[in-house]
């Protein structure tokens, strides 16, 4: 703490946290503003998260930070800030917003639901606790999963929660994800009138019977919820995420399932990158009945877990409803027809790297099984596609050589 006794509060920009600088001063803190890195290694959301975490950790270590007030424009950045707070073993408070990832963090106890975030973070800095690490355990992680998925979050939520749990030393989250994810369909989402009216507090109150009364930055979770929950969100044909597995191969993939979907299937059209797939869609080279297989997008192959936003946009622009299978991430907001986070990824020699044009593949969403028209022995005999990865000793190259699987957080191994 500085000599004048005012604790230094880390404030990242650009983010909504900048609007709390005056309140931090009024509460007796000294805001320390840091611009998040605008230049970063080429790669996906997990690589971006690790870059932000390293950047923030170095800054806070050099400037005597007592606590962090956190907000960001992207989930990967916010997750990186949280990872840094865990490494530093400091208190941190998340600015509450109505984005699905922030709602998950509120359910986890990181965002105050009824008190001013600036006042809370200064109090925590003066007291030195609770540190962020003290709030992360099985109950709070379960709350985050249920709330985030109900608020419409996609697979990226699972990846970042896994990274946060791993950094905190909490165990068992991958198994918890496999159990709770299929039980938590989206009931609302960003931009919904219901969420705009009731906010994160209303959503958590709606879920109160399924949430644990875990510790938070201000006390206990249910202390901040209204005694009577609001009327539930309107019935919607919300999508849910379901896991589908290949028993013999150990393959696993996370599928978006809408209200009517029973399978994701088609004749494989295999691409070595998102760029190749986008070109094929834009040039009208994709036939009805195809299943687009996009490889080389996982933690090691991306590197850093690529989100296929450009492919999703190209399919929308071409008005095509064609299923996609990838070892990367599906775009946010998709409802059905996408299967992502396939593991082992192509760069690790997984089954996805052995699929060929014309193979028939069916992901049975009812039974949770992967079925293919190619015998298992034939797939095993095939040479996997070689996924190019960064060479040298740069940040992305070091990451690609050791990156963990997606549901283990896709961080440095």
User: What does the radius of gyration come to?
Assistant: 22 Å
Distance between the termini: 33 Å
Mean pLDDT rating: 94
Name the strands of the widest sheet in spatial order: 5-6-10-9-8-7-11-12
How many H/I helical runs?
A: 13
Report the principal-axis shape: globular
Spans of 5+ residues with little confidence (pLDDT < 50)?
none
Provide the β-strand percentage band.
Answer: 15-25%
Q: Percent helix among the residues?
A: 25-40%
What is the domain total for the residues? 2
The string of secondary-structure elements, in order, is: EHEHEHEHHHHHHEEEHEHEEEEHH
Number of strands: 12
> Structural class given helices, strands, pairing?
alpha/beta
Largest sheet: number of strands, sense, barrel closure: 8 strands, mixed
GO molecular function: 2 iron, 2 sulfur cluster binding; dihydroxy-acid dehydratase activity
Keywords: 2Fe-2S, Amino-acid biosynthesis, Branched-chain amino acid biosynthesis, Iron, Iron-sulfur, Lyase, Metal-binding
EC number: 4.2.1.9
Enzyme class: lyase
